[in-house]
């Protein structure tokens, strides 16, 4: 906080309440003057190297459901809404934004808040036992909202209770196992890799990049930039072309042997229901529609309606 004190000495105490105080988040320094909830860190900041990869784009602070959530710094509420069943509050602080979820908001969009003002209450659903996911962004870049106050560098080290350490270890082990499971060399080659990209998120249980919880990933995510041609994985007949809020633009192709292939999040498709397609034929373009954090192809394979690991078929 030395930097803050120097700043105040320069500015004097003439700054009026309500004046936006924007401190650039220097590396290794916690953002803001208030921790939104007092609990320990259950899951640390772990940003992915690439936007579409799994990771943790904030910190999880232990907090029972109903715990008051406080603004980390002064700012203006820009989001106070329910997204995917979870309340989200975002506060703008100059070129930085803090996000708090899942939170039942008690503020409205446009409202000015001071550091420490209660902005809502913690809702269930983010971690077992309850927690607040606290995020910090500048533009599209995710930053660590706690900087080095969490167990590194010269900041105060917060000791975790044994239960939190055990949970953090368990989550880390599960994540490592899930990533290892995606490291399948090559499968049977029955299916063509529709975009030719590597698997960035494997089939099976994973930490969901948007909902920040362990969920079943019903396919593989294949790396591909926006607009990359999507090719039919095998000869077949288009069963459906549809749009929904989770999968975005979705295509299903039926193949011989009870096999179906499912393509999600595309910009769109150039085929229609009932159309015959050949292996390798371009059927659409990669996009980021639906619940997606960046362009990629989500690819699901089913055999007689049952999910299988696509990696075994590629
Ligand atoms: Zn989280
Ligand atoms: Zn996916």
Count of discrete alpha- or pi-helical segments spanning 4 or more residues: 2
Biggest β-sheet strands, sense, barrel: 8 strands, antiparallel
What is bound: which ligands?
Answer: zinc ion
Helix content: under 10%
Q: What would the average pLDDT be, to the nearest integer?
A: 77
SSE class: mainly beta
User: Which overall shape is indicated by the principal axes computed on the Cα atoms?
Assistant: elongated
> How many independent structural domains?
2
- What is the CATH superfamily classification of the largest domain? Glucose Permease (Domain IIA)
**Rg (C-alpha, Å):** 23 Å
Q: Which CATH architecture of the largest domain is right?
A: Distorted Sandwich
The amount of beta strand, in percent, is 35-45%
How far apart are the termini?
53 Å
- Can you tell me the CATH topology of the largest domain? Glucose Permease (Domain IIA)
The beta-strand count equals: 24
- Uncertain segments are 1-29, 148-161, 178-187
Helix-strand topology string: HEEEEEEEEEEEHEEEEEEEEEEEEE
Keywords: Signal
Protein name: Peptidase M23 family protein
Domain M23ase beta-sheet core: 55-145, 215-310
Organism: Micropruina glycogenica
Question: Can you offer a commentary on this structure?
Answer:
The protein is mostly beta strands and 314 residues long. The chain has helices spanning 2-11, 162-181; strands at 41-43, 59-62, 68-70, 75-83, 86-93, 96-101, 103-105, 112-113, 118-122, 131-138, 141-143, 199-201, 204-207, 214-217, 220-222, 229-231, 236-244, 248-254, 259-266, 268-269, 276-277, 282-285, 297-303, 306-308. It has 2 domains: 14-173, Glucose Permease (Domain IIA) (Distorted Sandwich), CATH 2.70.70.10; 187-312, Glucose Permease (Domain IIA) (Distorted Sandwich), CATH 2.70.70. It contains 2 helices and 24 strands. Strands 1, 2, 4, 5, 6, 8, 10 and 11 form an 8-stranded antiparallel beta sheet that branches. Strands 12, 15, 17, 18, 19, 21, 23 and 24 form an 8-stranded antiparallel beta sheet that branches. The longest helix has 20 residues, at 162-181. Mean pLDDT is 77; it is low at 1-29, 148-161 and 178-187. Bound molecules: zinc ion (2 copies). The site of one zinc ion (ZN) has 5 residues, from loops.
């Amino acid at each position: 906080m030395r930097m803050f004190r120097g700043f105040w000495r320069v500015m004097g105490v003439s700054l009026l309440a309500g004046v936006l105080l924007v401190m650039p988040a220097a590396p290794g320094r916690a953002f803001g003057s208030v921790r939104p909830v007092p609990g320990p860190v259950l899951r640390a900041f772990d940003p992915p190297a690439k936007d579409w990869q799994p990771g943790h784009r904030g910190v999880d602070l232990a907090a029972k459901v109903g715990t008051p959530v406080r603004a980390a710094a002064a700012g203006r509420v820009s989001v106070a809404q329910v997204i995917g069943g979870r309340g989200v509050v975002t506060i703008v602080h100059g070129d930085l934004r803090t996000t708090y979820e899942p939170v039942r908001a008690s503020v409205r969009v446009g409202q000015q808040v001071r550091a420490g003002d209660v902005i809502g209450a913690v809702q269930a659903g983010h971690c077992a036992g309850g927690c607040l996911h606290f995020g910090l962004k500048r533009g599209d870049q995710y930053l660590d909202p706690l900087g080095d106050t969490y167990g590194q560098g010269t900041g105060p080290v917060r000791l975790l209770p044994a239960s939190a350490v055990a949970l953090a270890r368990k989550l880390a082990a599960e994540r490592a196992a899930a990533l290892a499971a995606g490291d399948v060399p090559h499968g049977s080659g029955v299916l063509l890799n529709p975009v030719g990209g590597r698997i960035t998120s494997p089939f099976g249980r994973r930490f969901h990049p948007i909902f920040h919880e362990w969920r079943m990933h019903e396919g593989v995510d294949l790396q591909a930039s926006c607009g990359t041609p999507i090719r039919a994985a095998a000869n077949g007949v288009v069963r459906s072309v549809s749009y929904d809020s989770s999968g975005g633009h979705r295509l299903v192709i039926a193949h011989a042997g009870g096999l179906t292939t499912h393509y999600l999040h595309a910009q769109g498709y150039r085929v229609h229901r009932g159309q015959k397609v050949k292996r390798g034929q371009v059927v659409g373009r990669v996009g980021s529609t639906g619940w997606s954090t960046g362009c990629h192809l989500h690819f699901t394979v089913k055999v007689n309606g049952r999910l299988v690991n696509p990696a075994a078929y590629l």
